[in-house]
Amino acid sequence: MASVYRKKTGVYYISVMFQRKRITRSLGTRSYKTARKLISQVEKQILSDMINGTKESNSGPLSFHQLADRYLVFPNHDWSDSTRRRYRILLDNYLTDGLPANPTTRAMTIRVVNSCNNWGYKNGLISKPVRLPGGSKWESRHRVLNKDELQLLFDEIKDERFNSFVRFAYYTGARAGEIRCLQRNSIFPKHLVVNGKSGNRIIKLNSQAREILNQMDELWSYRRDFVSHKFKKEVRRLGIPDIRFHDLRRTFGYNLIKQGRPIYEVSKLLGHSSVTTTERHYAPLLTTEIEDFIL
Questions:
Q1: Same domain for 260 and 159
Q2: Phi and psi, residue 74, nearest 5°
Q3: Same domain? 152 vs 279
Q4: In a designed cystine with 149, which of 145, 204, 232, 242 is the match (CB 3.0 to 4.6 A)?
C-alpha cells in the first residue's frame, strides 16, 4: 500500500511498504493533484525494482536514466506531443550512445540533458544539478538547393509518390513530420492544419501544392526514418552533394525572400514563432546576395 506525504520543501513523496521494507521516492512535484496522478506509476516501478532485485536505498539519488524517465512522463511541462517525442529521442540516444558528433544535434542534446538535471534538482530528485557545457555551441546550416538541383530532383526521382511528396514539401515549406502522414480532414481549399513543433499551425497551399493534392487518390503515409533514408538515397544517386530533406524548407524560405516577399510574410509561411527566428536563419544567406557596392 502506497502513501503520499509532503516534505518541508513542498515536494510530495511516495512511501511504499513491501515485505516489511519501506521505500520512499520523490514524486518531483509540489502539486497534490499531479502527485496523485503519479502514484500508480511510481508505485509499480518501486515494486518492480524490489521484486527484480534492483538495489536502491531509501534516500539514494536517482540515476540519470531514472531521472530522464521521470522527466519525460511528468505531465505539467506544457510540451506539445512533438516536443515530448523529440526530447525522448534525444535522451534515449544520449543514454545509449552518449553525445552525438553532429554539432547542432549535440548542442540540442546538451540543452535537454541540462534541462532534465535542473528539473530534477528543483523538484528534490537529485542533490545537485550537473551542467554539461556546450549547449549554445552549434553550427547553423545554410545549404539551399539551386534551380538546377531542384529541377533535377523533380525530373529524376522515379518513385512518383515520393516525387510528389518532395515537390509538395518544397511548395509548402512544410517540415517532413507535418505532412508525411497527412489526413484528408486536415486539408482545406487554401490551407492545411497540421501538428507543428509547438502545436497546430496553418500551412498555406499555393496553386502548385493544390495541384499535387488534387492528383492524389491516396495521401502519403511515411515513417519518419523512411523519408530521410529515401531522400538521402535519391540525392546520392543523382550526385547532389550535402543535401538533407529539411533543406527543401530552407530553400522555400530563401527563394521567397529573394523574390521580394516581406520577411514578416515568410516568417508566417514557415510557422516561425517570431520574425527574429526567421532573420536568424536567413540573414547569413541573404548577405551573400547583396550587390556590389563602393564606399
A1: yes
A2: -60, 125
A3: yes
A4: 145
In a domain, 251, yes or no: yes
Instruction: Yes or no: say if 150 and 251 are a contact pair by the CB < 8 Å rule.
Output: yes
Domain that includes residue 107, residue range:
66-122
Question: What is the secondary structure of 74-105 as a DSSP string?
Answer: -TTS---HHHHHHHHHHHHHHHHH-S-SSHHH
How far CA 92 is from CA of 41, 85, 86, 120, 123, in Å, comes to 20, 10, 10, 17, 22
Q: Is residue 14 part of a domain?
A: yes
104-157 confidence digits (pLDDT tens): 888 889 999 999 999 988 888 887 777 888 887 666 778 899 999 999 999 999
Grid coordinates of 155:
525530373
Do residues 224 and 246 lie in contact, with contact meaning Cβ atoms separated by under 8 Å? no
Same domain, 49 and 165: no
Alpha helices in the chain (DSSP H): 32-51, 64-73, 81-97, 103-122, 147-156, 160-172, 176-179, 207-214, 224-238, 247-258, 263-270, 275-287
Report d(CA 200, CA 193) in Å as an integer: 7
Residues 151 and 282 in one domain: yes
Same-domain status, 221 and 280: yes
Instruction: State in Å, rounded, how far the first CA of the chain is from the last one.
Output: 80
Number of structural domains, the chain? 3
pLDDT digits (tens, 9 = 90+) for 216-225: 999 999 988 8
* CA of residue 144 relative to chain centroid, distance: 22
Assessment of whether the complete model's pTM goes beyond 0.85:
no
- The residue type at 198: S
The cell 530534477 sits on which residue? Answer: 120
> How many Cα atoms sit within 13 Å of 262 on the Cβ side?
4
Residue from 162, 196, 150, 149 nearest 177 by CA: 196
Q: Is 53 exposed, middle or buried (0-12, 13-18, 19+ CB in 10 A)?
A: exposed
Which pLDDT tens digit goes with each residue over 260-294? 899 999 999 999 888 888 888 887 777 666 666 67
